[in-house]
Amino acid sequence: MKKLATGLVLILSSAILYGSTLITAAIYSTVLSKEGFGWDSRYGLFGTAFRKVGTVSLILSIILAVLGIGLTLYSLYQNKKG
Fold this sequence. Notes:
mainly alpha, single chain, rod-shaped, 0% strand
């Protein structure tokens, strides 16, 4: 049961981290557009802001989600089996 709770907390943490990264990138993209800083035309305004702000947090969010899903499925499999 502890693994199920840990897995669900990891999934929730991943969602919160990803959502806060999107909000931060959106705020930073408004700064990029107003202040005249350079942004890459290949990625667009939001894509450039997301690449500058959210690369590490995106990777961490994916890792947390995969671990959380894995622990949750493992816990459910163990409960069904035994």
